[in-house]
């Protein structure tokens, strides 16, 4: 199947035969669909579902972090209504409406917290680059005047981060080194924030993941690197593959930190699974 862009929308082709059409106009939050139809002899074969799903995807309807709104005309019968309901459309007044507000992720929660807490940061550190998502966030947060350092012990993670930043027109000082060595690159008491996102490299071998024996020394180094008022953030993981040892040991380490030195926040999602990512913050005094 092939989806081709045409004036006012899209056409769906089965080889060289047009089997369906969708008329859609982009809106600020998604799109307004005015027509979706499949040629009668091609109906009940999944083409309508494919066409609608692809249109929603192209207009951001499945974006994991952005709220979207799509509208469509009221259905002509119960069968058509059931079709639209499969994709989250409900009757609102004189039209169908699909409103989607993604769940707040641990990563987004941490990023929002840092954004609200740090004004004009001068030095930010991503201690676990991965594919560069947090590194890119820190680059935007630092702006033109700030400095961003990134660490990862896996060369493929550094390469992936470099590609991610280049695609966004961003840059950072990247080091293929253990985050436990970050004080070799950062003067103690100078960093505004140090971010950790433990676990494994997304898209890579899940059997290769972080361990407490290196993570805790890195956290201790990060706390030394922070200025007074700086923030250490860490997302902890557990599950069938990685177990819970690292998460448990880091939480135990955090509980031993003296209140005279810092405040520790552990921000669990109460109605999520026990293995859900756990955002934590250490606020240095």
CATH class of the largest domain: Alpha Beta
Measured by DSSP, the beta-strand proportion falls in: 25-35%
Largest sheet: 7 strands, mixed
CATH architecture of the largest domain: 3-Layer(aba) Sandwich
- The stretches of 5 or more residues where confidence is low (pLDDT under 50) are 203-209
Q: How are strands sequenced across the largest beta sheet?
A: 1-2-3-4-5-7-6
Helix content: 25-40%
Count every helix, treating DSSP H or I runs of 4 or more residues as helices.
7
Query: CATH superfamily membership of the largest domain, which one?
Result: Vaccinia Virus protein VP39
What is the general shape?
A: elongated
**Backbone structural class:** alpha/beta
Report the span from N to C terminus. 59 Å
Number of strands: 14
Radius of gyration: 24 Å
CATH topology of the largest domain: Rossmann fold
Q: Can you walk through the features of this model?
A:
Keywords: Methyltransferase, Transferase. This is rRNA methyltransferase. It comes from Faecalibacterium hattorii. The chain has 285 residues and is an alpha/beta fold. Helix content is 28%, strand content 30%. A seven-stranded mixed β-sheet has the order 1-2-3-4-5-7-6, covered by helices on one side. A seven-stranded mixed β-sheet has the order 10-9-8-11-12-14-13, with helices on both faces. Strand 2 and strand 3 form a beta hairpin. Helix 6 (212-225) runs parallel beside helix 7. The radius of gyration is 24 Å and the shape is elongated. The relative contact order is 0.09. The model is unreliable at 203-209 (pLDDT under 50).
């Amino acid at each position: 199947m092939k989806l081709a862009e045409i004036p006012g929308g899209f056409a769906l082709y089965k080889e060289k035969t047009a089997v369906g059409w969708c008329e859609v106009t982009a809106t600020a939050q998604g799109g307004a669909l005015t027509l979706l139809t499949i040629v009668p002899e091609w109906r009940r074969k999944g083409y309508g579902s494919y066409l609608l799903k692809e249109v929603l995807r192209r207009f951001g309807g499945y974006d994991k972090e952005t709220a979207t709104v799509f509208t469509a005309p009221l259905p002509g019968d119960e069968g058509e209504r059931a079709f639209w309901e499969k994709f989250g459309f409900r009757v609102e007044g004189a039209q169908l409406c699909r409103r989607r507000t993604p769940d707040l992720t641990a990563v987004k929660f941490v990023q929002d917290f840092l954004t609200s807490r740090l004004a004009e940061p001068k030095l930010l550190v991503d201690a676990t680059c991965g594919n560069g998502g947090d590194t890119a966030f820190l680059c935007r947060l630092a702006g033109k005047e700030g400095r961003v350092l990134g660490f990862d012990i896996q060369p493929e993670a550094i390469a992936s981060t470099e590609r991610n930043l280049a695609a966004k027109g961003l840059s950072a000082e990247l080091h293929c080194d253990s985050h436990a060595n970050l004080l070799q690159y950062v003067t103690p008491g100078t960093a505004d924030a140090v971010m950790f996102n433990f676990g494994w490299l997304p898209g890579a071998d899940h059997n290769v993941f972080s361990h407490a024996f290196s993570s805790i020394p890195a956290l201790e180094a990060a706390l030394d690197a922070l200025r007074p008022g700086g923030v250490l953030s860490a997302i902890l993981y557990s599950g069938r593959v990685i177990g819970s040892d690292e998460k448990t040991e880091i939480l135990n380490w955090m509980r031993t930190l003296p209140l005279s030195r810092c405040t520790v926040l552990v921000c669990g999602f109460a109605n999520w699974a026990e293995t859900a990512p756990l955002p934590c913050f250490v606020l240095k005094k």
